[in-house]
Records
---
Amino acid sequence: MSILNRRKFITTTVAVAAVSAVSANTITDMKPKYPVVHHALFWLKNPSSTEDRDKLVAGVKTLGKIAAVKELRVGIVASTEKREVVDNSWGVSELMFFSDLEGQASYQTDPIHLEFIKNCSHLWEKVVVYDAIEA
């Protein structure tokens, strides 16, 4: 190995190590931006209807207009590996982030949320909600 190649190798290795150390510290030192998580899973009345699924997705997306909702992610079941621990029986997923528990509580009675329930509840047969706060 020539001296130039060795220097290049050593410089690159040191640079990668430095970036890795900074990244590791950044990840572990991160404070949660929005520590309250609200995850709702919806089971459709007509699970084979893409039209109903798309209507529900559109309805869920309106919830992003609520001031207390800091981030909103809406999803449908992914075609991932079938395993015993994977539940893919639901149709639409709503993942919301709030700054605090008060914001999550105010979301429940917000007129936009109530309108969503009024307009879309006929599309689902079951909803399961998981609320969590950063530990």
---
Amino acid sequence: MNIIKGSARIIGDEVSTDIHCSSKYLPGKDATYIATVAFEQVAPGFAKAFNKGDVIVAGKHFGINSSREQAVHVMHRMGVSAIIATSFGRQFYRNAINNGLPVIECDISGIVAGDALEIDLVAGRIAVTAKNITRAVPPLPATVRTLLEAGGLIPFLQKHPDWNVGGEAA
């Protein structure tokens, strides 16, 4: 999972995943259904045009006010491989990592819908090679990459039941 490749799918600023990826607003609906209509209010047709492996490219404050892990579960159902945004809501950012979804903050200027993206989590690079766009970003720390590779915090802890906060076996 150190290299992620996918097509850019653009969404705007100030997207609250509490509204756009939550069963709170669709009583009785599950994550599978919500994945088919996610973000409809801010980008009509977004979920229908989304292909497994695509990358969400968002403006500032993606996931603002979101404390619901369900939003990340919905994006997993959509097949989101990563999210690149100018900035993230902090709770959403942590929920994404805890649930195995790579999130990267960077300048998104020049990236348009359909651009083929390559994200290198180790080197800290996002590239649109067809446009000769390369952005340096801070590489994700090894511990974060380990959580992402495991599928998130809970799967990691299930695979490593003796792990403790110091990172050593108990």
